[in-house]
Every structure is written in C-alpha cells, then in structure tokens.
From TrEMBL:
Its main location: cytoplasm. It comes from the Eukaryota. This is Kinesin-like protein. ATP binds at residues 89-96. Belongs to the TRAFAC class myosin-kinesin ATPase superfamily. Kinesin family.
C-alpha cells in the first residue's frame, strides 16, 4: 500500500480539564467551564461551545483517559501503524500529570499514574499474548530546549551531536540519539525514570526548564510474524510532553529571559503555523513550514503524515486562567482539521526479502 491510497484519518483531540488545585481554591477561583453530559462538548463562560473527539471533565480518572483515548492507538501499533500522543496546554494545566512524566516505579500501579507507564504495561501484556511473533523493542527519550536536542538517556559527558535526517522510505530519523533495546517492562520503566530525572536536574539548573522544553519519549516496536518470520512491521509511538503554551507577557520576562523564552517557544509558534497550514481547507496545497523548528521537524510524520495522532489539550477550569484556556481550546479545535494518512509500516528489509523470495520461486 502506498501513501496515495491510504485512508485519511484526522488528528483526534481529547480535551482534559483538571480539577481546581488548592492554590486556585484558596484564591477564590471559580470554574469557568461547563461540561455537557454525554457529549464531548465544553462551554466556556455562558456562550462559547467547543466540541472534540473526547472530553474529560475534572472527575475523569487516568484509567478512563487511557482506556478511551490511548488504547485504540496501541491496537494500531501492533498492526504496524505509527502513533503520536501530544500533550498541549499552559504550564500547570496537567500535561506532565497526564503523560506520566514524573513517574517513578515506587508508584507502581497507583491510580494516579499517567499515560506512559500505562502504555509500557499494556505493550508488554500484548507482547505476551502474541507467542507466534518475535518482538524487538527499543526506546529513546529526548528533550528540545532552546532549539537544542538533548539526549535524556545518555550519561556520557561528551555527548555526540544530534542531527535530524529525512529518509525517503523510513521518514524522519534522529542521528546520534541513544536507542536502548529493552526486553522487559521494568527495563523500559527504568529508561523513563532515568530520562525523567535528567529532565528534573535540568529544571533546577535552568529555572523551570522542564516547563519550557518539549520532551519526546519514543517506543519502537519491531514485529516479525509468520512461520518464517519474514512478515515484519516496524512501528513507532511518540509520547510528547510539550512546553507550556502561555503567552510571554504573563511570565513578565524581559531582556535575556524574554529572548530565551522566544527561542524556547519557537517550537510552539511553529507548531501553531504548521497546524494552521495543514488545517486550512482553502490553502490545500500550501507550503507547510515543518523546517522552521526542531519540534515541527521531529513531528513531521505525526502532523499531516503517516501516523495516528492524538492531542491531549490540557486546561485549568479556573476563571483566572480563562484567556489561556480559550487559546488552548481554539488551538485544539484547529488541530482537529489536520488530515493524516497512516499506513502499515512494513520493515523495508523484510519487504525486500519477500520480493526476492517471490522472484526465486517464480524462476524455479
Ligand atoms: P503541566 O505539566 O501542564 O505544567 P502538571 O502536570 O505539572 O502541569 O500539573 C500541575 C498540577 O496539577 C500538579 O500538581 C498536578 O499533580 C495537578 N494535576 C494536574 N492534572 C490533574 C488531574 N487530572 N487530577 C489531579 N491533579 C492534577
Ligand atoms: Mg510539565
């Protein structure tokens, strides 16, 4: 199957509203969002309504988010489709909580654990069920800070330079990034914890860098099926915790810090431009500025390309955050207009083997 005859599947959007946090309650904040029962719809203030693929109100548990919105993507992964989950929203809206970006194995199966540890558990459960297949699993974990790609799984002092290359067959590739092969769920969780702690160190050293950086945890799943194991697929799952989307004026940054903020948020600004270009029907074959930032280059396949993609748009219900919440709701609304064309990703080596085998059987 080629990209031309692939089915068009739009980017799906899940809106997630966290509960009011103690600070907001102490300040006397009220909720400015109303949730329409049994409809994926939210109303801001008294009039503006927005509809998404899924809406999770403040009472929704992590398990519900996982089983409703994430599980279908995992089924696709095992069929050979790429998938991406992007958490978007202002700082403090629940992106890291939703993605599980502070997970430690001490939390084990606590109901509050987020997407990534749940994904890891499910992947290994599914793998166990498929005794007729051979699996090869690998993970990488990176952070984009100030337009630099940092390898969160590399402990060496002199880290190799990381560059982005585009392979005509396999899509975007990151050269120089650690890709760790893993055979068990605890081993993969170990990689998540290692990377999470590398992020936290960054945040104390660079003043809350973690909320100003983008983190991408990637799981690569290679699957060999069939009696002679030539039927192979390779799929990738990107789990992305984006930088806080708040407007600069709110952080009262000036001078160097403002400059830093602009460069850090370049990724988000470009992401917005890419989403606009892809979602605007009137600009059908318009140029899409993927190359304007590292973030959009890395997500090129996830937006308007070969991937099943879900955006989790995170918001605070507090009236004091209403302006940012409306910005997020609008951004998420535009993302729904992006049309992707996911295809089953056959391992190019296995495809070549199959072709040769067929040739041989024809000649004898
Ligand atoms: P972000 O990563 O978007 O900056 P966090 O994920 O760190 O935000 O969340 C901010 C605070 O809100 C944290 O204390 C977190 O535990 C809490 N929180 C976020 N989402 C929820 C939720 N759905 N239920 C309960 N607490 C939440
Ligand atoms: Mg965060």
């Amino acid at each position: 199957m080629t990209n031309e005859d692939a089915k068009v599947i739009p980017v799906r959007v899940a809106l997630r509203c966290r509960p009011l946090v103690p600070k907001e309650i102490n300040e006397g904040c009220q909720s400015c969002l109303t949730f329409v029962p049994n409809e994926p719809q939210v109303i801001v203030g008294t009039e503006k309504a927005f509809t998404y693929d899924y809406v999770f109100d403040p009472t929704s548990e992590q398990e519900e988010v996982f089983s409703t919105a994430i599980s279908p993507l995992l089924n696709g992964i095992f069929k050979g489709y790429h998938a991406t989950v992007l958490a978007y929203g202002q700082t403090g809206s629940g992106k890291t909580y939703s993605m599980g970006g502070t997970y430690t194995s001490a939390q084990e199966n606590d109901p509050s654990v987020g997407v990534i540890p749940r994904v890891i558990r499910r992947i290994f459960e599914e793998k166990e069920k498929r005794a007729d297949s051979e699996f090869c699993l690998a993970v990488s974990y990176l952070e984009i800070y100030n337009e630099d790609i940092l390898d969160l799984l590399s402990s060496s002092k002199d880290k190799p330079a990381i560059s982005i290359r585009e392979d005509p067959k396999e899509g975007i590739k990151i050269v120089g990034l650690t890709e760790r092969q893993v055979v068990s769920a605890p081993e993969m969780v170990g990689c998540l914890e290692l990377g999470n702690s590398a992020r936290t160190v960054g945040s104390t050293a660079m003043n809350a860098a973690s909320s100003r950086s983008h983190a991408i945890f990637t799981i690569t799943l290679e699957q060999r099926r069939g009696s002679d194991k030539v039927d192979s697929v390779v799929s990738k799952l990107h789990l992305v915790d984006l930088a806080g989307s708040e407007r600069q004026k709110k952080t009262k940054a000036e001078g160097d810090r403002l400059k830093e903020g602009i460069s850090i948020n370049r990724g988000l600004l470009c992401l917005g431009n890419v989403i606009s270009a892809l979602g605007d029907e009137s600009k059908k074959n318009a140029f899409v500025p993927y190359r304007d930032s590292k973030l959009t280059r890395l997500l090129q396949d996830s937006l308007g390309g070969n991937s099943h993609t879900l955006m989790i748009a995170c918001v605070s219900p507090a009236d004091s955050n209403m302006e940012e919440t409306i910005n997020t709701l609008r951004y998420a609304d535009r993302a729904r207009k992006i049309k992707n064309k996911p295809i089953v990703n056959v391992d190019p080596r296995a495809a070549e083997m199959n072709r040769l085998k067929q040739q041989v059987s024809k000649t004898i």
